[in-house]
Amino acid sequence: MAAAIPELDSYTDYDSFLVDHFDPNTHANSIIHQSARGELDIATSLSSLSFSIDSLNKQLHEQVTTHYNDLLGQAAGIRELETVLKTVKAGLKTLSTSIERLSFKIKTPFEQIRVYTIQLERLQQTSELLRRVLRFLYLSKRLEMQMPGGDLELTKAALTLSEVDTLLQESNLEGIHVVDNEVKNLESVRIRIVESADRILQEGMDSQNQAQVGSALQVFYSLKTLDLKIVAITSLLSNKLHLQIKQAIDIQSLQKEAKESGMGGSTGFVGGGVRRNNGEPSVGAAALWTSILWKRMEKLMDEMYNGCAKVYLLEQVLVRKRDPLTQISFLEIASNNMDGNMVHRFWQALSAHLEQELKTATRSSQFLQQAFVDGFPRLLNLLHEFFSRVSVHTSSTTTSEDFQSPEVVLMLRSVAVFENAYKTKTAQRSSQR
């Protein structure tokens, strides 16, 4: 019987029942549709299913009978396994309880420490902010007390204002009303300090007072604008001399002054207003024009000397003044934005302006061309006197035959064209004799 069952069972199709996600309703509907199409008989299908069920029951019974002892042993093992599982479950429950108790002991203090840490950080931030606000208000009050002190307290006020600027840069105090209101007043204070420093600096340079110049420069250094101020001062002096050079040899201005001088003379109108085309003087007025021209050149040399004296004074004070911490001189700090030596750059600009304006003026005026060529010895003498006066402020500006400073070379080069023309003209006169 046991051998017959597998043989009969081999004719049964179990594949359709072994597919994944087997659905009995879908299987039954498939049989019904096949029966409706005449492909399969429902009775035959039911008989086949009944036979297959009986066959499987018999096979199960045979397996149970054959392996009875093994099944009993496995059943006993399952009971033992259940006992072990109960023990494991009890252990896991105990472990879970311990973990919860340990979590309560650790997590709760951790959360408290975290909250306290956040509170402490915020308290420290608030304390630091309040400390900076108090420092700001203290500096503002001190600045308010220093401002009525005039020029004597100006450097201290500038230093206090610098501390306020540093404090505002390092701290974000925006939105604090007491600070915002005070910041608005600081701008007007800054303007007053800068204007006072400008005035003191100008007075000190005009009077050659090193103390005043030093005080003013200290103010600009405290405000961190020293380099910009030095550039502005030297540019202003250079531009002013440029304008004075241009005005000194302006042919239209020269004609106007000659006309006024000629009409006001004791001999009446001496030809000052009579001129040739293109603004050139007449023969009778040439001497008057020449006299006025050289007076203007003498005055120009005075103005050039004053400008150079101011620059040298500025350099001397910048060398003497130093940063109290780094001991770096103010001159080195100011030179960072000047691309080289301040004095040399000033001389370069001065000689360039002088050469440019002389060339432009003499190119458009035959009178000026002849006056500077014929009067070159006088022009050279004026320059030598100018160099001698400037040499008082520096030992480098000399005109000896063995040595000439770079500044002297620059200035002499600006009038070289007249020197060459004068030498040529002198040589021609000598050859004609």
Automatic annotation (TrEMBL):
Which is a Gene Ontology cellular component entry for this protein? Golgi transport complex
- The answer on whether this UniProt entry bears the keyword Cell cycle reads no
- Pfam families referenced in this protein's UniProt entry, alphabetically: COG5_C, COG5_N
Q: Does the keyword Protein biosynthesis apply?
A: no
Q: What is its main location?
A: Golgi
Q: Which InterPro entries match?
A: Cog5, COG5_helical, COG5_N
Q: Which GO terms describe its biological process?
A: intra-Golgi vesicle-mediated transport
> What membrane topology does this protein have?
Peripheral membrane protein
Where found in the cell?
Answer: Golgi apparatus membrane
Q: Where is the Conserved oligomeric Golgi complex subunit 5 helical domain?
A: 173-387
**What keywords tag this UniProt record?**
Golgi apparatus, Membrane
What are the residue boundaries of the Conserved oligomeric Golgi complex subunit 5 N-terminal domain, all occurrences included?
Answer: 16-143
By what name is this protein known?
Conserved oligomeric Golgi complex subunit 5
Q: Which gene encodes it?
A: COG5
